[in-house]
């Protein structure tokens, strides 16, 4: 339609949501579908967090709040940053929004001008480039392939920075790969950033607590304190706290930036859900024992999926450090034909044929900016994962 904004032509719908929707539609039509596309834990929100939300309702805490969060939640966020990351913030440096996505979007809208560039390592979370485009900026995508463990090298970051670079977006552990940066690896990137004082850092730490084996999470302002004044450290309660539908994300950074984000939010959504804010206070301040228990389950599922996918000739599946995704390469399958007659010319063709022929829904790698791969979310039951990986094995083995 000619009366729609030209800005819409710069973006596309979320591919991950599209895959999940397609799987749900096929399941509703009677197909035997196993969805491995959803980026959310299958665990329920812990009881003590749910109880805090119920208590907020019963106590009448259902009115408007300050635009970017209640004082109690901001205090809990400050305590979290000091406890977990050794970072000191005051409430005026904190913003709370309706999910981590809104936090990132507010920051980009508040800071980008036409022509500003944002460096984004690929594979990336699908929304990063489109949010940059919506805000009028230009995404600069830098491949970080399987040969580097899906991690950006200092040399690649250095080469991507120009006088127009406004932000560097950093995500560890990563969606879609689960790759996590060690302290030394991150120090290599922060050393580059120290040489370019005009570049700000936007960290997406949403999977901070979903870390496995001996991997130790760290965040840029923690590794290089001199970056503190130009870093927006972003996080939320969605993943580790099993609160995806509660829609609470948060960030801490320089007061001037937080104030600009508050202004954007004041004219868009206003405050996040009041009930969810009180539940988030309990999530941050209350018992975290369930995270250790959930991570043990995720580790078992990760090992199951990695093992079964690596049994397939033509597939290479690295072991992730965190999150709940694997990102296997199908380079050895490109050019083959499925048993159903589909030519596997790229990872989108692979995912489409896999869904149509086996009922297994995955997200193709091009959606994340790096091919030929696909993403599997192992945030579902062991039984479903075994069945799904078995179908993937049979699908690949049936190719000629």
UniProtKB/TrEMBL annotation:
Residue ranges of domain Aminotransferase class I/classII large in the record: 32-392
Pfam families found in the cross-reference section: Aminotran_1_2
Cofactor: pyridoxal 5'-phosphate
Domain of life: Bacteria
GO molecular function, one term: L-aspartate:2-oxoglutarate aminotransferase activity
Transmembrane feature ranges: none
Catalytic activity, EC: 2.6.1.1
InterPro entries for this protein: Aminotransferase_I/II_large, AspAT/PAT-like, PyrdxlP-dep_Trfase, PyrdxlP-dep_Trfase_major, PyrdxlP-dep_Trfase_small
One record GO biological process: amino acid metabolic process
PANTHER family referenced in this protein's UniProt entry, alphabetically: ASPARTATE AMINOTRANSFERASE
Assembly and interaction partners: Homodimer.
Family: Belongs to the class-I pyridoxal-phosphate-dependent aminotransferase family.
Name by which UniProt lists this protein: aspartate transaminase
Species of origin: Roseovarius tolerans
Species lineage: Bacteria, Pseudomonadati, Pseudomonadota, Alphaproteobacteria, Rhodobacterales
